[in-house]
Amino acid sequence: MAYDPYDLTQHPPRSPRCRLGGMVILPRLLDKARATFANKQGEYTYNCSLDRYVLDFLGVDEKALLSQVALGKGDGEIWKWIIAHAKHPRSAQDIAAFSAYHEQRTAGAPEKRARMTAYQSSTPAGAVREDIFTWFDVLDLDDHQSFNGRV
Would you say the pTM of this structure is higher than 0.85? Predict the structure, then answer.
């Protein structure tokens, strides 16, 4: 089967660590938007809470962004559109701070800590994953497990 970059039933979206314009999460969000437009999103959800962090930070409407994706624009073109249409223009320093925060974000509240602990022990054979600290670690592990290590 040929590789289809829009088919998230065959592979996960890019890691939340990937950046576009210096911003984490955005390439993953665009992968999910493209897959949603192609009706190949699988278990991934466009405009989920993770996506909302980016959309709200920039002040970008999710439907307007999806309409730009539908035009077949590449990442660079989408980034230019975002910069031109963001209700909350951000400096490079703002974007760097946003990205650093999200790269290091961990579970704080007890109920979120329980969820993180569940992911840490969800590996095959019940091995404990002491290297799972951040939500990005959780997403990367979940993507890996969802596709049986084919990531």
Answer: yes
